[in-house]
């Protein structure tokens, strides 16, 4: 099989950087599938699910940010929690981004990167931290951290009195997929008292942060949040502070990014113009990594309603309502598809093989901005002969349903492969091994010969650190 030795080499959980190949991502997926099928004939079956990750898509997303209306104004602090894969963090550090960390372990991971950022390029953006994490941040030299309550101020006073504090405020996140305001963010009415307390404790509050919610659907939420931040800057002045730092959080999505960045830029120009001297940062997660990861899963089982004559008896199928066929694949909601439960995602399959023959129709990758993956992707790809299917994960739990109803081409069999795009955000990092199923591993590529891919390859190659 093509590149088989190389694919075997890169198909490990923690690939060294030199194992990042440069095959276009869809070709890479097909190569791995073909390689495994060849092995299957020799009896050495390997149907395990895997991710193919294209670092050029991460690069593209950073470029998109930098060329957008906020590109020259808002610094990227990548939200590590979204996808802490070492090659992603390594590339981002080479591209000069900073980092949003939520825990001691994330801080340690970022600080041990081959090209580690200085600790002042990390914000500890978790408003409710265990005291030991605050002490560890002090030891690691990380001073910037968020808070949204009085107890946090007392903890910080004891564990890290020189911290540079950022007040996380509550904003309207009602139009977002994940409403973080249910858990975090000080209502504006509580901010004056918090700031007065911080002042009494002699703490250094440098500014304000917010998060409009992950998967934000309404760009105007950013306009409203910036306006609220401005109110809190004024409260800061009343309490004796001179804030020079604004963190606009995450919540950006590729489909709406152009509009969102324009709305954000306009609001910043009104409330925090450049001559105000306010440094503006953001904590994008999903936007930078979602498109970069494609998951390939194998159909490990299939159930189809038998005609009663075939079954020799009256068969009552208990299938999900209306589906003609039920497919069982080898990753599910306890694994990479946890994004369905935790991140409210709808995932879209397309076939990599039909009746064990490779397919040629693949979605354009990554989809252009403003193009959403169609709900019935196979139909969009031109498969006319489809049937209604439900798709299930491999565990014994009936909650493990990946799609209750989706159109898939006829002819799919046990052993065929389904691919799922846009799988880079909040997927593999939160996957469990429930029921004894391994997490899906990742094969890495810089993505081919496009200018972005060539640029990423050059950036990785130009790095001559100890790990290369
Ligand atoms: N910043 C904070 C504090 C978060 O909690 C999150 C996500 O939960 C992010 C940034 C990243 O958000 P997103 O992936 O929507 O950009």
From TrEMBL:
Signal peptide residue numbers: none
Alphabetical UniProt keywords: Lyase, Pyridoxal phosphate
Domain of life: Eukaryota
Enzyme Commission code: 4.1.1.17
GO biological process: putrescine biosynthetic process from arginine, via ornithine
UniProt catalytic activity: L-ornithine + H(+) = putrescine + CO2
Pfam families: Orn_Arg_deC_N (PF02784)
GO cellular component: cytoplasm
Segments forming domain Orn/DAP/Arg decarboxylase 2 N-terminal: 57-290
Cofactor(s) recorded in Swiss-Prot or TrEMBL: pyridoxal 5'-phosphate
Active site: 396
Chain positions found as N6-(pyridoxal phosphate)lysine: 81
Top-rank EC class of the record's enzyme: lyase
Pathway(s) this gene product operates in, as recorded in its UniProt entry: Amine and polyamine biosynthesis; putrescine biosynthesis via L-ornithine pathway; putrescine from L-ornithine: step 1/1
InterPro entries in UniProt: Ala_racemase/Decarboxylase_C, De-COase2_N, De-COase2_pyr-phos_BS, Orn/DAP/Arg_de-COase, Orn_de-COase, PLP-binding_barrel
Sample GO molecular function, one term: ornithine decarboxylase activity
Subunit structure, as described in the record: Homodimer. Only the dimer is catalytically active, as the active sites are constructed of residues from both monomers.
Family membership: Belongs to the Orn/Lys/Arg decarboxylase class-II family.
Protein name: ornithine decarboxylase
């Amino acid at each position: 099989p093509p590149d088989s030795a190389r694919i075997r080499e890169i198909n490990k959980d923690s690939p060294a950087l030199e194992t990042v190949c440069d095959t276009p991502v869809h070709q890479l997926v097909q190569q791995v599938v073909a390689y495994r099928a060849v092995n299957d004939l020799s009896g050495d079956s390997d149907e395990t699910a895997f991710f193919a990750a294209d670092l050029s898509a991460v690069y593209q997303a950073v470029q998109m940010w930098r060329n957008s209306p906020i590109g020259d104004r808002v610094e990227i602090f990548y939200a590590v929690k979204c996808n802490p894969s070492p090659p992603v963090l390594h590339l981002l550090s080479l591209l000069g981004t900073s980092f949003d960390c939520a825990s001691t372990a994330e801080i340690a991971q970022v600080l041990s990167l081959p090209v580690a950022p200085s600790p002042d390029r990390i914000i500890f953006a978790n408003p409710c931290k265990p005291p030991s994490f605050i002490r560890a941040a002090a030891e690691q030299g990380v001073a910037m951290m968020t808070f949204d309550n009085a107890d946090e101020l007392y903890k910080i006073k004891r564990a890290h009195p020189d911290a540079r504090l950022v007040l996380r405020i509550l904003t309207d996140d009602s139009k977002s997929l994940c409403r973080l305001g249910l858990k975090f963010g000080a209502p504006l009415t509580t901010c004056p008292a918090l700031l007065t307390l911080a002042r009494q404790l002699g703490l250094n509050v440098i500014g304000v942060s917010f998060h409009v919610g992950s998967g934000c659907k309404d760009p105007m939420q950013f306009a409203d949040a910036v306006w609220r931040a401005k109110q809190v800057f004024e409260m800061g002045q009343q309490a004796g502070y001179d804030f020079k730092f604004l963190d606009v959080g995450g919540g950006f999505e590729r489909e709406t990014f152009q509009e969102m960045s324009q709305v954000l830029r306009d609001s910043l120009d009104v409330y925090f113009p450049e001559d105000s001297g306010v440094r503006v940062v953001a904590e994008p997660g999903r936007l930078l990594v979602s498109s970069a990861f494609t998951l390939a899963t194998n159909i490990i089982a299939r159930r189809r309603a038998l005609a009663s004559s075939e079954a020799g008896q009256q068969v009552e199928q208990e299938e999900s309502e209306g589906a003609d066929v039920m497919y069982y694949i080898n990753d599910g909601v306890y694994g990479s598809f946890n994004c369905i439960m935790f991140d409210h995602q709808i995932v879209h399959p397309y076939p990599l093989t039909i009746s064990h023959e490779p397919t040629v129709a693949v979605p354009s990758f990554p989809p252009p901005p403003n193009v959403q993956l169609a709900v019935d992707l196979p139909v969009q790809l031109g498969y006319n002969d489809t049937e209604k299917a439900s798709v299930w994960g491999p565990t014994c739990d009936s909650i493990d349903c990946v799609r209750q109803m989706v159109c898939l081409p006829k002819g799919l069999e046990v052993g065929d492969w389904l691919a799922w795009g846009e799988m880079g955000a909040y997927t593999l990092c939160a996957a469990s091994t429930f029921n004894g199923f391994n997490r899906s591993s990742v094969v890495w590529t810089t993505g081919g010969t496009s200018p972005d891919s060539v640029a990423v390859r050059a950036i990785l190659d130009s790095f001559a650190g100890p790990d290369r």
